[in-house]
Amino acid sequence: RKGMPEELKEQVPLLQELLRKMHMPLLMMEGFEADDILGTVAKQMQAEGKEVVVVSGDRDLLQLSDEHIKISIPKTSKGETKVYSYYPKDVEEEWGVSPIEFIDLKALMGDSSDNIPGVPGMGEKTATWIIQKYKSIEEAYAHAEDPEFKVPRKPSAGKDLKEHFELAKLSKELATINIHVPITLNFSDCKWENYANSESKELIRKWEFRSLYSRFEEAESTTEKKLSLPAWKDVEDPYLAKIAFKDAKKQKTAGIFLQADSSEEGKLYVYLCLSDTRLYRIPLSLCEEDLKELFKEGEYFTLQLKDQYHLWEELLEGEIHDLSLGAYLLNPLKDSYAYDDLARDYMDLVLPGKKELQNSAEEGLYSAFVSWQAKDRIFQELKDTEQWELYRDVEEPLVPVLFRMEKAGILVDKEALLSYGEELKKNIAMLQEEIYAMAGEEFNINSPQQLGVILFEKMQLPGGKKTKTGYSTAVDVLEKLQEDYPIVGKILEYRTYSKLNSTYAEGLSNYVGEDQRIHGSFQQMVTATGRLSSTEPNLQNIPIRTEMGRVFRSVFIPKEGSVFLDADYSQVELRLLASLSKDEKLIEAYRKDADIHRVTASEVFHVPLEEVTPELRRNAKAVNFGIVYGISAFGLSEGLSISRQEAKEYIECYFTSYPKVKEYLDGEVAFAREHSFVKTLFGRRRPLPEIHASNFMRRSFSERVAMNAPIQGTAADIIKKAMVMVDRKLAEKNCQSRIVLQIHDELLLEVVKEELATVKDILVSAMEHVVSLPVPLIVEATVGNNWDEAH
């Protein structure tokens, strides 16, 4: 029979490693299957007078059922698992045969899940009739030509058995459990305890078995250390504060955390951890000068540093390491990097979460304590995973840059914003009346259920797909109908205007501060690829392809005496694909500054370069960018509205034209399968825990991510490095100009007019020369009196 699937085979040693770290006794013997060892041990225990229970989902084990051996089979249905127990009478009741006859039953009907072939065409009912009458396949074979061998509704059963008896014998051999394996179970070795220990926890943390991790935590009430904070001092005496800082200055290192006390009208406290037993809370007003003096030398450790900059800018003067950032690099798939997350992941400690704390002082104390305790482990893991330079040279110096961007904010013409909002509302009201007139009645256009009934029942539009909650009115469904049915176009237009109004006209105005600027947040520890994300509000998501979307960009303006300078990387991901794949033809095209989409169209569609039409170029552009994202033939066919076969041929032609791209992408997937992660040019890791998933969709998604993440992540690393360089150069030149926004591959600066030439040179030079690649990076920089003009 077939061997174990390769994907499963690769994971067996990993499972064994985890079980050993859980102190689980393992019974193994080369050349024998697990069923054989189970059967042998069950019979040994029975012979010693013990009552035996065998728990397994494998029905083959029913043959072991005995008055003293119970087979328990868990079965899951509709999310509920029940355990069914079988003694011999239970086997006979359900299967109509005895446990020993169950072997012959399996031999006839086969079992694809266990690679037992059985007799072709013979199902469970036929096999059961034969074994009930003849008790074994050998006896049935001996009577297969007898006149009374007449299986109901299966007249060919005897003939089938005669023809395939060798296969039936092989199947019986495969189904029979060997109960004579030369192995002995020592009952005293079966004691199992302390499975939720630091070694096993570290492994399941590394492999990201999240649900298992939470179950370990529940079990750790008896096995895991739970922390009570060391005795801490609430320092209110200036003399005692000076002693604490004198000790800190002497050792030149500490865990530190700055926080506003919610119960004392925002009074700022410094939390200082100098050792496992020395922990202090000191009012900032009592120690400002001591803290500034402390930062003149030494290195210090904290969590969520950018938030603390907003409380006290003088923190910028110290060499302070943000361990949350380090934890993010080590596992970018988590959604939190607070003190309790780091304690669990790097200190083997369970701490109460923020919501469980009695007061804000506890959060500060825990944060300082964890910063002190976790620093060595996190730094060592960054070095072990070759991400130390990425942390030190890119992520850490970016923190003050993002703080300055948040503090500066971006100026908004609020009157223009409100005016556009009113215009949108008029358009929405007008569209609403037109839709009612076309439908012949009023209804809630925002309700998918009501809209579905109007379109697909009352108006009888084709293509209605009914789900449990009603007809689907998703964009992809409606877009296919809008050309032939005007009401659908109006509905899509209504949705666009409604979203622009709620998200931007009304949404943005809520964030405009007293200084008429929006001070958003740039999140550094959110995306798995390393990209920054923008929140409160999301300024990276303002549409630019629609006229109204561009209007919203125009409400962002520079302060008086300044202009906006916008710099955008040209095709950075395609240039990275060429550089990382080392495909000579792609590299040459870029070095000649050729139109890469026309070149690809010429190669893929086999037409001379001068005969490439705009439509062919558009299709080639979709192929170029699709390849970067690991697009499938189905995805490309949907995007270009062509057949799947055509899309498949396009992709194949692309890879024929650029063979090293195919080689590179396949190599990334192979690397991911071996290591369960991929990495960027700068060493950033993107974990892929589902690269071996049995579910096709999840596995395929992981493979596409394996192709794209190194490219998208490298692009993210590049612009982060450029931001650090630009910020540093602006400071060196004493420029008043500053970075105000980052939108993936684009930087927007508010530039004092007199500094424009200098700043433009700094910006373009930094962005284009941040890294040396086979394909040069090209930056397009433009100037404008609002964001839309500058873009």
Automatic annotation (TrEMBL):
InterPro entries: 5-3_exonucl_a-hlix_arch_N, 5-3_exonuclease, 5-3_exonuclease_C_sf, DNA-dir_DNA_pol_A_CS, DNA-dir_DNA_pol_A_palm_dom, DNA/RNA_pol_sf, DNA_polI_H3TH, DNA_polymerase_1. The keyword DNA-binding applies. Keywords: DNA damage, DNA repair, DNA replication, DNA-binding, DNA-directed DNA polymerase, Exonuclease, Hydrolase, Nuclease, Nucleotidyltransferase, Transferase. It is an enzyme of class 2 (transferase). One of its GO terms (molecular function) is 5'-3' exonuclease activity. It holds the Pfam family 5_3_exonuc. CDD domains: DNA_pol_A_pol_I_C, DNA_polA_I_Bacillus_like_exo, H3TH_53EXO, PIN_53EXO. Its EC number is 2.7.7.7. It catalyses: DNA(n) + a 2'-deoxyribonucleoside 5'-triphosphate = DNA(n+1) + diphosphate. Residues 1-193 form the 5'-3' exonuclease domain. GO terms for biological process: DNA-templated DNA replication; double-strand break repair. Residues 549-755 form the DNA-directed DNA polymerase family A palm domain. Single-chain monomer with multiple functions. In addition to polymerase activity, this DNA polymerase exhibits 5'-3' exonuclease activity. NCBIfam families: pola (TIGR00593), PRK05755.1 (NF004397). Belongs to the DNA polymerase type-A family. This is DNA polymerase I. It comes from Oribacterium sinus. The gene is polA.
